[in-house]
Design goal:
Elements lengths: L1 E6 L3 H16 L3 E2 L10 H5 L3 E6 L4 H20 L4 E6 L3 H7 L5 E2 L8 H6 L29 E5 L1 E2 L10 H5 L3 E2 L2 H13 L4 E5 L7 E3 L5 E3 H9 L6 E5 L8 H9 L6 E3 L7 H7 L5 H14 L4 E8 L6 H14 L3 E6 L17 H24 L5 E10 L2 E6 L4 E5 L8 E9 L3 E6 L4
Parallel strand pairs: 1-2, 1-3, 3-4, 4-5, 6-9, 9-12, 13-14, 14-15, 18-20
Antiparallel strand pairs: 7-8, 10-11, 16-17, 16-19, 17-18, 19-20
Length: 442
């Protein structure tokens, strides 16, 4: 039996899908093709006896992609009555009710341990009702890692923040931290297996909290120390962080532990206090700027990225200019800029979406222009310097990878560099890609 997994969304969804793969392969399923990715081509899907879709509910556009996929699935099922299709991942309750018409099973990601029972004993399940199964402990499943050198390690799941535009607290439920011992055990095994990069994942990693047997509380800074103390040559990265509780302890931990890379994504979402209050972000622009100042004092040269929403309901042109001003002040290395779109079920969906699509595009373009200028200026300063690069892909005759500052490096080489930490001298720079060549130290 062959399976194919289609993944929409973030690194957490990829990590979830790696656990789905482990469950399926444990009962004899084999990959039909590239088992993890967004490949929805008819050729890829036609090879599978089982298709699992790990969806994202954060943006309506992501949900719409799943709706579009349903039509392809119907055509495939018309050709093969044996084909089964499962929907899991980050799903809102209202979406579950809709998607039961297009999928054989709609399963909470926390319930994937139940998947073998569902597939092997279909007559014990209320297929016509598309019963939703409940079973906890899914993070205890040992994943079938996609990469052989970079691993996603969830440390928590869920969110308690209820940002006005976000559905994650409704799709992932409240915050639950994974036991520190299990995290450390997983990372130790990965390092023994030769992994070079560990991503610690959570909807808000700063909220991580676990009580050990001696009643000692392990917060996120302590967890960073515990992972850093694991012997081996590897990088520690993490995502995502919320500015409201990104505190001095976390900053000190990043500065103190050598394996934690000098890169941080700290989503500001808007540069105006009134808009931030409407978003229920619970910090001010001044708070955010103070945290950035402390970061740069403790970690000179740290690379910073952020997330931004332009055109949030009620955002005036003057308020947007405050965001542009913040961009010019912070001088980000990278930013992920999104045009606001209503998401049913959120507080913001009740507000009037009164910024036109044309104006949202203008604001996105204006921020992108500032970003390109600041990113290019920063990248040009790296020309001539040598940096460590973890090579993660090859396209045509070029290798690509990320350095410790999470900048994309393009390399020409006849050697097989995939999965290797390699020293590269930077020869050229553009806003978002650096070019380099191997040093004589190879």
């Amino acid at each position: 039996m062959k399976y194919h997994i289609i993944v929409f969304g973030c690194q957490m969804n990829i990590s979830d899908s790696e656990r789905v793969s482990a469950v399926l392969e444990n009962i004899g399923y084999q990959k039909a093709s590239n088992a993890l990715g967004a490949d929805v081509s008819a050729e890829a899907l036609a090879k599978a006896d089982l298709i699992v879709v790990t969806m994202c509910s954060v943006r309506q556009s992501a949900v719409d992609r799943v709706h579009g996929l349903v039509q392809k699935i119907k055509k495939l099922k018309a050709k093969s009555q044996k084909l089964k299709v499962v929907l899991t991942g980050c799903i809102l309750k209202k979406d579950k009710k809709i998607f039961v018409q297009g999928f054989d099973y709609v399963i909470d990601i926390k319930d994937i341990k139940k998947l073998p029972e569902i597939l092997q004993n279909p007559f014990t399940c209320k297929v016509s009702d598309r019963t939703l199964y409940k079973l906890d402990g899914y993070l205890d499943i040992t994943p079938k890692y996609t990469s052989k050198f970079s691993a996603n390690v969830p440390i928590m799941t869920g969110c308690n923040n209820f940002c006005a535009y976000c559905v994650v607290p409704y799709a992932r439920d409240r915050e639950i931290s994974r036991p520190a011992k299990k995290i450390i055990s997983e990372v130790k095994n990965l390092i023994k297996g030769g992994y070079k990069e560990i991503w610690l994942l959570g909807q808000n990693v700063n909220s991580y909290s676990n009580v050990l047997e001696n009643n000692r509380i392990v917060g996120f800074p302590k967890l960073l120390e515990m992972v850093n103390d694991i012997p081996g040559n590897f990088w520690i990265r993490f995502t995502s962080s919320h500015p409201k509780d990104f505190n001095d302890e976390v900053i000190s931990a990043m500065a103190s532990y050598k394996k934690v890379t000098p890169y941080l994504n700290l989503p500001v979402q808007a540069g105006d206090n009134k808009v931030l209050r409407s978003m229920n972000r619970r910090y001010t622009v001044r708070d955010y700027k103070n945290k950035i100042k402390k970061l740069r004092e403790k970690i000179p040269g740290i690379a910073l990225s952020t997330d931004i929403i332009v055109g949030f309901p009620g955002e005036t042109k003057k308020q947007f200019e405050n965001t542009a001003k913040l961009f010019r002040e912070i001088k980000y290395d990278m930013a992920y800029i999104n045009k606001y779109s209503p998401r049913a079920g959120t507080a913001a969906s009740k507000l009037k979406d009164n910024v036109t699509t044309k104006e949202k595009k203008r604001r996105e373009k204006a921020l992108t222009k500032v970003l390109k200028q600041t990113a290019l200026a920063k990248n040009r300063k790296i020309i001539g310097k040598t940096t460590n690069v973890l090579v993660d892909s090859k396209r045509n005759n070029f290798y690509f990878g990320k350095n410790d500052h999470y900048k994309t490096i393009k390399i020409i080489s006849n050697k097989n560099l995939l999965g290797k930490l390699t020293k590269v001298k930077i020869t050229d720079a553009s806003p978002f890609i650096l070019k380099g060549k191997l040093t004589n130290e190879q």
